[in-house]
Amino acid sequence: MSSEAPEMSSATREILGKVRQMVPPMLEKFHKGQLGRVAVIGGSVDYTGAPYFSAMASAKLGCDMSHVICTPGAASVIKTYSPNLMVHPLMRQSPPPNSGHLPATDTDPEEISKGIIDMLGRLHVLVVGPGLGRDPLMHKTLAKVLAAARERKMPVVMDADALGLVQTNPELVIGWKEVVLTPNVVEFGRLQKALKVDETEGKQQSETAKVEALSRALGGVAIVQKGAKDFISNGDDTIIVDLQGGLKRSGGQGDTLTGSIATFLAWRNAYLEGLWDHGGKLEEKETLRLAAFGGAAITRECSRRAFMKKGRSLQASDLTEEVHPAFLSLFGENDPDAKL
Fold first, then answer.
1. Which residues form the YjeF C-terminal domain (predicted)?
2. Nearest to 219 by CA among 197, 201, 193, 240
3. For 176, 193, 248, 276, which has the most beta carbons within 10 A of its beta carbon?
4. Domain at 10-331: CATH code
């Protein structure tokens, strides 16, 4: 298995060719921020790595501006990881018992969310969940931010503990055509149970029947079902990512996925706005799934390349360093009409 030449099916090669059409060329006319302003909402005192890995994947893939919105305790740590990220200590965790009187800006999700919601107009895409934890105040705050993002029809990638919000409050995302859920096998099962989707559905049908059933239960929400293959579906149309990845399942690899999908969604925005002359060959309704495919393909190639170098010692940070090489391997550079 060469680190320079990933093997792929003809179907994957064809889909990657479509994804490539959304990748902006490097042109002098572009200015800062046009090709991607992404924010990751997550990061608590106990979990500082996940939002960093997601935001750095987004940055290294090529978004112009990468933000992390987290708690003050997490912010002070994440700022030491990289000076390239913009870190905003706007989230709050529930105060400990007997902490005395605290202002509403530290305890009221309505007040806490205002500063984050004010940022939405300056962003293209949100990633929610990495390092979020299960703190009730964090979840209530995020629910208010998600409602505001949905009103703006803003693309959002949901992962990890943010998927717990979908389990308990599915109305937050039902029918939201700009959201992408990225559950692992355990999270997928929990969503099936919460949405009362028959877990046996699909056993005698196609391998994509389960993800299609769950997506339909959520009103056509895009879902990336992670596994030996990644299935990306809106309930009606499904594409399969069958690129080979690495064999080490270290924590944090899903954060590379969310950050990568976010950058492709930001590029999707630039494509739909016609920021460069691309011919408009893609149908808008397929571009969200293509963005998810691009992110999944990058993550698998990162994992494959990192595993070739690190083997059993592979860690999430090893994937971060492979993001740009993986992009070059799958998409090349500059020429949007280049053949894969």
1. 15-330
2. 197
3. 176
4. 3.40.1190.20
Tokens of 167: 């389990």
Give the Cα separation of 340 and 333 in Å (integer): 11
Does 252 show up as a binding residue in the annotation?
A: yes
184 marked as part of a ligand binding site: yes
Q: Is 330 annotated as a binding residue?
A: no
What's the pTM? 0.95
Residue 79 labelled as part of a binding site: no
DSSP state of 93: P
255 is in an annotated binding site: yes
Per DSSP, the three-state class of 255 is: helix
Q: Is 247 annotated as a binding residue?
A: yes
Q: Tell me the pLDDT band of 336, cut-offs 50, 70 and 90.
A: very low
- Average pLDDT over the chain, rounded to an integer: 94
Confirm if 235 and 265 have CB atoms less than 8 A apart: no
Does 300 count as an annotated binding residue? no
Flag whether 235 is marked binding.
no
The full set of domain ranges for the chain reads: 10-331
